[in-house]
Design brief:
heterodimer; A: 351 residues; 5-stranded antiparallel sheet; 4-stranded antiparallel sheet; 12 helices; globular; B: alpha+beta; DNA polymerase, domain 1; 2 domains; 5-stranded mixed sheet; 6 helices
């Protein structure tokens, strides 16, 4: 591990200060960040590992596990109730929270399908979101080329062993996938991220936080240097009470997804009135399936309609040598999860 | 501020790069906690931090200031074995023994989570107040601890026996 200074922050303002982030002077073009090499530390389950491999080499670590670990109910004048989740809430605490289980079951399900119990006890919500999009070649400093690790070096995954890699939204520069399960649920649930940085406080739709690799695979997110996630907000979303998360993987526990599906479905008189759908394991970011959602609204809640919507979403998929199976697997998993939420017979052979 | 390790105050390391695992083994010579993969994949380094099971290899020791760490050495009272340690012997819950301290610390943390009602991947009903201590639940909840000798069945037997009788009374609390 490369030497670093360790500092601890109990609130967002202190964290920004310790990370060397100053308010940007309007119109002055001031960079606003003194120490771009500073990083925020949550549970450390990804960052400490990457530092040990010297893939991440921050000069300063600002420990932000002292930020809010509260989960609070929000509400507007119309009685719509959402949840505000502090950045430092541990994954286990979020999964076990009564209101999350009741109102957003897909989120509890997604969390407990990820990593191991020990890691879920350590990992914070913000840390989970900001774990690196990565693949085995990213870790292999000694033997592999990786554009994410070393810009312009080349990618050994594209023509290598790429069974785990992306089928949607990849680029010639990078085919890695975002490994989080929690984030797939947040993408489906219309979550909003609360940020603090050189430009003050701002909010970002969760689905705009992570980015596709393009020709800058080193950038996993749209965040600016020094930006700090202070909270994640879930909106009131009544249909999320009927939601599910299904993860398909090589072993039944403690493995990354080959494909995962987060879905919420509302059906009235046999017609899909509303739906939320997101996929994991298929792209550089949690993949919100807007094409399939649009295809489903107003359609009969039948397996045929689910198949058509899944096919529309995966129409743009581009397989690599080893991961072509994911295209069919993703479609079947979507159909299976939607069928389950629609109350269809689960004993059939669908997926 | 110090770190409480098995009840004794310990000074945090000057170098923030030191993991909790290395502090325990190299500085405090508490070699019960094992270094397996050193990258969060095997669970051999599992300890209890403020009562919650965590991986000491991915925890920086400086992050534990003001907190309480319990290792396998701190589980038994007055030199006696913890009941779970007895049960591991009874049920052949190990062969080489390298993963055992992590398995035992993990199981102690696990049973707390189960009684608290933390759901797992195999919990059928998220709304249920009490979660059954089924074999399926125990297996899933211990999946972060690998045993390359393949003693998993004995490990689950030992855990099931140790915590079977207190299950209902404590779940009702």
């Amino acid at each position: 591990m490369t030497p670093f200074s360790y500092l601890r922050a109990a609130d967002a303002d202190t964290a920004l200060q310790l990370a060397g982030v100053h308010a940007r002077h309007p119109g002055a073009g001031h960079p606003g960040v003194e120490h771009p090499a500073a990083k925020y530390l949550g549970g450390g389950t990804n960052l400490v590992d990457l530092m040990r491999e010297t893939i991440e080499r921050p000069g300063t670590l600002v420990d932000v596990t002292g930020l809010s670990d509260r989960i609070a109910e929000t509400g507007d004048a119309n009685g719509n109730r959402g949840l505000l989740i502090g950045a430092a809430v541990r994954n286990t605490a979020l999964a076990e929270h009564r209101l999350v289980r009741q109102r957003y079951p897909m989120l509890s399900r997604a969390i407990v399908s990820g990593a191991s119990p020990q890691i879920r006890n350590m990992a914070t919500v913000a840390g989970n979101i900001l774990q690196r999009t990565r693949c085995a070649y990213f870790y292999d400093r000694a033997g592999s080329r990786c554009n994410k690790r070393e810009p312009g070096q080349g990618c050994d995954a594209i023509d290598g062993f790429n069974r785990m890699h992306a089928i949607l939204g990849a680029s010639p520069a990078c085919v890695a996938t975002h490994p989080s399960d929690l984030c797939v649920a947040l993408a489906a649930l219309d979550a909003t991220v609360h940020l603090s940085g050189a430009d003050g406080e701002r909010r970002l739709p969760f689905t705009e936080l992570h980015r596709l690799p393009g020709d800058e695979p080193g950038r996993d997110t749209a965040l600016e240097p020094g930006d700090l996630i202070t909270a994640v907000e879930l909106p009131a979303l009544p249909l999320a009470a009927n939601s599910a998360y299904r993860k398909v993987r090589d072993r039944s526990s403690y493995a990354f997804a080959l494909v995962s599906v987060a879905a919420a479905l509302s059906v009235e008189n046999g017609t899909v009135t509303d739906v939320r759908l997101a996929l994991g394991g298929v792209a550089h970011k949690p993949w919100r399936a807007l094409t399939a959602e649009q295809a489903l609204r107003g359609q009969p809640a039948t397996e045929a309609a689910f198949r058509a919507a899944a096919a529309a979403e995966l129409a743009a998929a581009q397989p690599l040598r080893d991961n072509g199976f994911k295209i069919e697997l993703a479609q079947r998993t979507i159909v299976a999860v939607l069928g389950e939420l629609a109350g269809h017979d689960r004993t059939g052979d669908g997926a | 501020m110090s770190i409480a390790v098995n009840g004794s105050a310990v000074k945090p390391p000057d170098d923030p790069r030191v993991s909790l695992l290395d502090l325990l083994r190299e500085t405090l010579h508490l070699s019960g906690t094992k270094k397996g993969c050193d990258q969060g994949a095997c669970g051999a380094c599992t300890v209890l931090l403020d009562g919650q099971r965590v991986l000491s290899c991915l925890t920086l020791a400086v992050q534990c200031e003001g907190r309480s760490v319990t290792t396998v050495e701190g589980l038994g009272a007055d030199g006696a074995l913890h009941p779970l340690q007895h049960a591991f012997i009874e049920h052949d819950g190990f062969q080489c023994g390298y993963c055992t301290p992590g398995q035992i610390c993990s199981a102690v943390g696990m049973i707390g989570e189960l009684r608290r009602g933390v759901p797992s991947h195999v919990t059928a009903d998220l709304a249920a107040g009490a979660i059954p201590h089924s074999r399926e639940e125990l297996r899933e909840r211990m999946s972060g601890n690998l045993c390359r000798c393949g003693a998993h069945n004995g490990i689950i037997d030992a855990i099931a026996e140790t915590y079977a009788e207190t299950t209902h009374a404590e779940a009702a609390e």
